[in-house]
């Protein structure tokens, strides 16, 4: 790649040959150079993913800086990157932990039957944005209501006949765990309500009130998840994405200016190589 870059730069400085269109020649070489750099980059990435770390000739050192870093250093970098309120991972962790703590407090204070459903509802329905959480909560509420009505009808009709619940449990689990993740929160919550009602009916005598408790617990957990989503970073990663994109543009602006200057004039001002290296290092950070 370095030889190709040197050859390309040499051809750009040679007076055009009348026998061949210089622009067509430069376009071909530029396309070939871009394809070669992409191929080398992919090859280096695959080699890093499948084998031990080793030097990557022909590529900037900043591009795969982690290839030569030790495992403790990589852990330090990852932990340091996320130990800040600006980290989306940190924001999600705080939102989830606060929601679980509040759900546990509410379930214990109100002495809700099967209170762990409150925590499970908050954990499964919480999203990274308040809007997405509200959409999931609405779908889950409808699905839980329909599933609870179906579970109540099943418990009333089957009564204490555990053989019926035992026969239905495996097919219900197969359908719930296959269709639920694909169908969305409504299907997932509705079918899961049928599954837990069928399972609990084999452990101890239950009535239709189990379905009622399921509705109350899921709605409580959904409300807690929605409150946490509204109070803690309701826009999710949107703000961090804007800040990161702005930082990337600011970092690449000097590099673009230097590139255009070199392409237009054929030479660079004194100190341009150092400026370009600094701009490249800043760009690679993002």
From TrEMBL:
<feature type="transmembrane region" description="Helical">
    <location>
        <begin position="101"/>
        <end position="125"/>
    </location>
</feature>
<feature type="domain" description="Integral membrane bound transporter">
    <location>
        <begin position="104"/>
        <end position="228"/>
    </location>
</feature>
<dbReference type="GO" id="GO:0016020">
    <property type="term" value="C:membrane"/>
</dbReference>
<feature type="transmembrane region" description="Helical">
    <location>
        <begin position="137"/>
        <end position="157"/>
    </location>
</feature>
<dbReference type="Pfam" id="PF13515">
    <property type="entry name" value="FUSC_2"/>
</dbReference>
<keyword id="KW-0812">Transmembrane</keyword>
<dbReference type="InterPro" id="IPR049453">
    <property type="entry name" value="Memb_transporter_dom"/>
</dbReference>
<keyword id="KW-1133">Transmembrane helix</keyword>
<keyword id="KW-0472">Membrane</keyword>
<feature type="transmembrane region" description="Helical">
    <location>
        <begin position="163"/>
        <end position="183"/>
    </location>
</feature>
<protein>
    <submittedName>
        <fullName>FUSC family protein</fullName>
    </submittedName>
</protein>
<feature type="transmembrane region" description="Helical">
    <location>
        <begin position="214"/>
        <end position="233"/>
    </location>
</feature>
